[in-house]
Amino acid sequence: MISANDLSPAELAALLHFHADAGVEWLLEEQAIDRFAEFEAMKAARRPATPAQQERPAPRERQVSPRPNAAARPAPAERAASGPQPAIPDGEAVQQARFAAESARSLGELKTAIETFNGCNLKHSARSTIFAAGDAESGIMVIGSAPGAEDDREGVPFSGKSGQLFDKMLAAIGLSRSTILLTQVIPWRPPGNRAPSAAEMDICRPFIERQIALAEPKVILLLGNFAARFFFGENDTIHGLRGHWKEIAVADCVIPAIASLHPQDLLTAPVNKRLAWNDLLAFQAKLKSLSLLRN
């Protein structure tokens, strides 16, 4: 087996990127860690002490020789305070998300509300919170599905190779990131790029709908199978949903929307680029009819 000491910095970086893309969220330590003991300590830290427990003297702690890097590792009780929050029942989390979203009166306030929201388990495994970026006054909104590994690392929607292709797609119809409002349905990357669960979708729905309500776009482009199903409420594949104008009802607004393939889909199957190009031309024609395409 090749030791990490035998790898160059570039090879180490490539190896870490490979593991992150594969969905690896934890690295093995040189010394074993008793996760069950940590979990019990977290529960004990949250559980209020009974009168009998308050009167009972604390047991003597067994002396244990510190393992390497023990000083740099927080104690289990400290991790409980700074780590993931206790699980919130799905129904309660949805109510909290709806209240936080509706309380925001601007995109800036909504960004803060999402960043401080702890009711979705996806946030605890993600590195970044992905929020809308670009020109909120453009009237043009592009919504992707969920952050990928590169998005999570960079903190920007549509990063990496799929982002480079996305930029070329926009340029082909006279647009750029700075001339649209770009966001994603889910603000946090699901571990291993898995599909969000129904409960996670319900929790995140108030946030994306509030983004749309505050931005008030005149037209929306949906990219990817998940985004199309999420807004159109249909179970067909992206090949059945793409290329057809439909309407999205958010708050008191009804907005025309068209779905197309995600740039990552096009990297995987380049033969579908001709389908995406037809969708982009239809999107461009709609922008011109609404006088939204700048010369």
Automatic annotation (TrEMBL):
Residues 66-81 have a biased composition (Low complexity). Residues 131-281 form the Uracil-DNA glycosylase-like domain. It catalyses: Hydrolyzes single-stranded DNA or mismatched double-stranded DNA and polynucleotides, releasing free uracil. Residues 44-89 are annotated as: Disordered. GO terms for molecular function: 4 iron, 4 sulfur cluster binding; metal ion binding; uracil DNA N-glycosylase activity. The keyword 4Fe-4S applies. It comes from the Bacteria. This is Type-4 uracil-DNA glycosylase.
